[in-house]
Design goal:
Elements (H helix, E strand, L loop, with lengths): L2 H12 L3 H20 L4 E3 L3 E8 L2 E5 L4 E5 L2 E8 L1 H12 L12
Helix pairs in contact: 1-2
Length: 106
């Protein structure tokens, strides 16, 4: 499912015009990004949490130059689904035929 598919599905279920749904969805994405950029986690009960994870400093390899490089400590955004969300996905995906979960994600 792509963003346009999501907008169409929400618009169809709620009766809200697609343009308004798109504005609301873009606003949501923007607020999540802004909050994480400011060091604030976003918690949505029953759905999940958008959190900032710390990656410790480590030594990596530059394969082409065959040299060791130090990768400094950094922070990355992460999503942790709620237990209810995980259980719903497990229950529904396990019920699907085996070949239906092999779709390409372009």
């Amino acid at each position: 499912m792509r963003k346009s598919d999501l907008v169409a599905a929400i618009s169809e279920k709620t009766g809200v015009p697609k343009v308004d749904v798109l504005v609301a969805l873009e606003s949501f994405f923007s607020e999540v990004k802004d909050s994480l950029s400011n060091g604030e986690n976003v918690y949505i009960r029953g759905f999940g949490s958008f959190v900032i994870k710390r990656r410790a400093q480590k030594v990596g390899r530059h394969i082409k130059k065959n040299k060791s490089i130090v990768i400094p400590e950094h922070f990355i955004p992460s999503f942790k689904p709620a237990k209810v969300f995980v259980e719903q996905v497990k229950d529904n995906v396990n019920a699907l035929p085996a070949d239906s979960t092999d779709e390409d994600d372009d």
